[in-house]
Design a protein that fits this description.
The chain is of the alpha/beta class. It contains 10 helices and 21 strands. Strand 18 and strand 19 form a beta hairpin. Helix 2 crosses helix 3. The chain is globular, with a radius of gyration of 21 Å. It starts with 25 loop residues before the first strand and ends in a 10-residue tail after the last strand. The structure holds zinc ion. The site of zinc ion has 8 residues, from loops.
């Protein structure tokens, strides 16, 4: 595996006060480093030191970078930008057609926001514009705007000719000079050094009555175990704390979907027609990270055992070239174990390399001589993948689970 290097300059700015309630009292959650996993399936030298506020429950990485350093980090961020069509696929039961993450998000927005009649929609962190293109294709009368700090992603979005794009960060980026009828901000808020200020900015960018669609990792969902392990996740949310933050900044919180199939939290909030006094933050205990600790300990134990078997000559493959496998390769003994390959079903992944290992289809398992497969997928999909692999290979290949059949407990 390639050695990690710092992808930003200077010393971390850090944060010792809660960005929501201002408290300086917090409890430790977890520590990682100096090799840290990044969200674009890379590594960086850095430090993660997550804590939870004892007054309001917000969690953050107190070793976080400053805004300028994150901008430097994201300028070189590349994820799914090699082709316009590439997307994440959501796990489905055997035999069902795959569903893309983008299609799932567009369907959610359509179900919970009034889209008839058209309007202006802004996607904060628009990437290459996949969400906006899919939304515009099914929503007549809408105009799409996007903002993204990645130069390559913003260029791809602009090249579609359908989206007005600003390259930059939400807090300091340029102004479109208009108000929006809807704003989508998906998997962005957790990256910001001051999410409360960002929510204020989103409030100001919406017209009165306009809708905000927020999607973030739910740090309490076991399928998002890696939320606490990603270098650039500066803050961590759950349904309770994010709802309170939105209400405290003047939003009316409507739909709250605590967990999608992949562990994300979705909230639709509305900027009220008539301004009203924001609700104050109220005292709330920090989230219980016990399930997270048990899950990650179990996963680490299984990964280390698989690494040991690979070193004894077993021909080991990991199923799933995604974030679960990335976390195992960054933080467990698998980082330098002699694994043979990855196996995956995504047509966008097969044929590429992942952390230096080739990605093959299941059809190539026999010719590779694989005799042990570690199911490196999120906890909720373990049963599905294990049964799929067992149906296909029978007793000819050993299948190693990451978590037990009853979920994530040891
Ligand atoms: Zn707080």
């Amino acid at each position: 595996m390639n050695p990690a290097r710092a992808r930003w300059s200077g010393e971390p700015v850090g944060r010792d006060t809660c960005a929501f309630c201002g408290s300086r009292e917090y409890a430790p959650v977890n520590i990682a480093g100096p090799r840290c996993l990044t969200g674009d399936f890379g590594l960086t030298t850095g430090r993660i030191e997550n804590v939870a506020c004892l007054r309001c429950g917000l969690s953050w990485n107190r070793a976080m970078l400053g805004e300028r350093q994150y901008a430097e980090f994201y300028a070189g961020y590349e994820k799914k930008t090699t082709s316009q069509g590439e997307d994440d696929l959501l796990f489905q039961a055997s035999g069902e057609p795959p569903v893309t993450l983008t299609a799932d998000q567009v369907a959610f927005l359509g179900a919970h926001v009034e889209i008839n009649g058209g309007g202006r929609i802004l996607d904060v962190g628009c990437g290459k514009g996949a969400f906006l293109l899919a939304f515009l294709a099914t929503s007549p009368g809408w105009t799409g705007f996007g903002i993204d700090p990645s130069a390559s992603a913003a260029a791809l979005a602009r090249a579609t000719g359908r989206i007005e794009v600003i390259e930059g960060m939400l807090e300091s980026g340029g102004d479109f000079g208009v108000h929006f009828d809807a704003i989508a901000i998906m998997h962005v808020l957790e990256h910001l050094v001051d999410p409360a200020a960002a929510i204020d900015r989103l409030f100001d960018l919406l017209r009165p009555g306009g809708s905000l669609f927020v999607e973030v990792p739910n740090v309490l969902d076991p399928n998002m175990f890696y939320d606490l392990l990603l270098f650039e996740h500066a803050h961590h949310f759950n349904p309770d704390i994010l709802s309170r933050m939105l209400r405290a900044r003047g939003f009316e919180v409507g739909v709250v979907e605590p967990s999608t199939r992949y562990g994300a939290l979705r909230i639709v909030a509305v900027r009220p027609d008539v301004a009203r006094a924001p609700l104050p933050a109220y005292d709330a205990p920090p989230p219980d990270f016990g399930t997270w600790r048990r899950t990650w300990t179990r996963m680490t134990t299984a990964a280390n055992e698989t690494a040991r078997l690979a070193r004894t000559g077993r021909r080991v493959a990991l199923f799933g070239a995604g974030m679960t496998a990335a976390a195992l390769l960054a933080y467990t003994d698998l980082s330098d174990a002699p694994i043979i390959a990855f196996l995956d079903e995504s047509r966008w992944k097969i044929g590429r390399t992942y952390f230096g290992h080739p990605i093959h289809s299941l059809d190539e398992t026999d010719q590779l001589g694989i005799d042990l497969i570690l199911v490196a997928t999120m906890p909720a999909s373990q049963d599905l993948v294990v049964s799929k692999l067992t149906d296909r290979f029978g007793a000819s290949v050993d299948i190693q689970r990451l978590v037990d059949a009853d979920g994530q407990h040891i």
